[in-house]
């Protein structure tokens, strides 16, 4: 006689679903105050984290893949929270994004209520102001969950224009009435949502005060405020000396670290020399040694600080090839010159020489770690080291293209030294932070 399989217990049935795996992980990061980078604004994830925190979830479940057992994890509060929001609108929207759909629906409700009260001659009454401010609040919440909420902002905006047109066409009202309507809508549907939107990001940044996997997308100064980051309360040297090993970060939003690796540019992408890219994550291949342009650094000599206007060579530490440029087209940006790694064991040629310029700096001013904005101008080609922002193909591991731009005013040509390693005791004790 064939036996039926044993019935699963309640705990064995508790497994994570697809969206719980994705957003639950972010909820854990909020609870643990671990910084992360995400393409969407923060409100939705913060609400999930808040519901989990209030119902006993401690932020330790890994949320690795859908179907993983919860094994007693207090996940119920987060699931009930999202389900409740989904239940407040048409049930089928539960299969989409309940938080986003809730705020979108509430925005439309507020829009309709404002129009109804305006048509019933209750403009500027308490209930009219309530629904107008409510609409602005819901618009801010919508756009704070996902940028697709812009479509609802557009809908409410067009509807508001229609409302104002009808108000203007009401000849029983003076023109000043229309002006007041316009000012009220501007305050409640533009200024008020903008303030709320910024407030959500303020909360986001206050909560996420620990270093996480999104650090590299942000500036060195911002990273220095994250607990656990290598720059947080760092005791690295204040000034950059010849012989120091540094990492160099681009100032462009989302800009990465100057990076190289053993792989060469392929045929058809300029000279077949070592690739130079930017990489948004911290890595050993981001390290460069600051050298004199015409001689080696002697460790027995007095410490020499890099200054504005001086010529240098930058040697990639893992591969021992120098940062180099020449009049070959860049692989993607054809109006720029190619930047490569060149030479053997730190020895290259005259195309490895770069002039260091401090942005807005004084003559002979010293280069400081983190705070000094720098340009690297190629000595022979008179072009600025920059990142084009373009993603290289798979041969470049989809990292970003680095070029040398003849336009020295390129806004993406500004860099700063982030990490600064120099082990001379007299240097670190006398000149460090």
Automatic annotation (TrEMBL):
Pfam families in alphabetical order: MIR, PMT
Top enzyme class: transferase
CDD domains recorded: beta-trefoil_MIR_POMT2
Localization terms from the record: Endoplasmic reticulum membrane
Family: Belongs to the glycosyltransferase 39 family.
Quaternary context: Interacts with Rt/POMT1.
Role description: Rt/POMT1 and tw/POMT2 function as a protein O-mannosyltransferase in association with each other to generate and maintain normal muscle development.
Protein name: Protein O-mannosyl-transferase 2
């Amino acid at each position: 006689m064939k036996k039926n399989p044993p019935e699963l217990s309640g705990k064995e049935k508790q497994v994570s679903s697809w969206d719980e795996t994705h957003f639950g992980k972010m909820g854990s990061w909020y609870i643990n105050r671990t910084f992360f980078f995400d393409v969407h604004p923060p409100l939705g994830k913060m609400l999930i984290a808040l519901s989990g925190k209030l119902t006993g979830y401690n932020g330790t479940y890994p949320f690795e893949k859908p179907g993983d057992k919860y094994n007693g994890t207090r996940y119920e509060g987060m699931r009930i929270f999202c389900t409740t929001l989904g239940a407040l609108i048409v049930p089928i929207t539960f299969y989409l994004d309940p938080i986003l759909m809730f705020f979108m629906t509430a925005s439309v409700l507020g829009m309709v209520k404002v129009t109804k009260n305006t048509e019933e001659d209750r403009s500027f009454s308490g209930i009219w102001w309530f629904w107008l401010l409510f609409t602005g609040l819901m618009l801010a919440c919508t756009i704070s969950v996902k940028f697709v909420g812009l479509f609802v902002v557009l809908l409410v905006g067009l509807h508001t224009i229609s409302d104002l047109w009808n108000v203007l066409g009401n000849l029983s009202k003076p023109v000043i009435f229309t002006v007041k309507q316009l000012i009220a809508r501007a305050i409640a549907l533009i200024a008020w949502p903008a303030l709320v939107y910024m407030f959500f990001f303020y909360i986001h940044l206050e909560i996420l005060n620990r270093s996480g996997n999104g650090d590299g997308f942000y500036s060195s100064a911002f990273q220095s405020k994250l607990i656990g980051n290598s720059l947080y309360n760092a005791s690295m040297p204040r000034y950059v000396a010849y012989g120091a090993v540094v990492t160099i970060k681009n100032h462009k939003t989302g800009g990465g670290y100057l990076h190289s690796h053993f792989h060469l540019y392929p045929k058809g992408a300029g000279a077949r020399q070592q690739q130079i890219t930017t990489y948004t994550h911290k890595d050993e291949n981001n390290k460069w040694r600051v050298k004199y342009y015409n001689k080696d650094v002697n460790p027995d000599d007095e410490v020499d600080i890099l200054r504005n206007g001086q010529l240098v060579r930058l040697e990639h530490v893992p591969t021992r090839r120098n940062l180099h440029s020449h009049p070959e087209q860049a692989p993607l940006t054809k109006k720029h010159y190619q930047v490569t790694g060149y030479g053997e064991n730190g020895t290259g040629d005259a195309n490895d020489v770069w002039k260091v310029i401090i942005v807005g700096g004084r003559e002979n001013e010293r280069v400081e770690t983190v705070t000094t904005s720098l340009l690297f101008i190629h000595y022979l080609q008179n072009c600025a080291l920059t990142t084009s922002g373009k993603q290289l193909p798979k041969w470049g591991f989809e990292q970003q293209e680095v070029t040398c731009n003849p336009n020295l005013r390129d806004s993406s040509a500004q860099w700063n030294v982030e990490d600064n390693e120099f082990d001379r005791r007299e240097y670190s004790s006398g000149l460090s932070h």
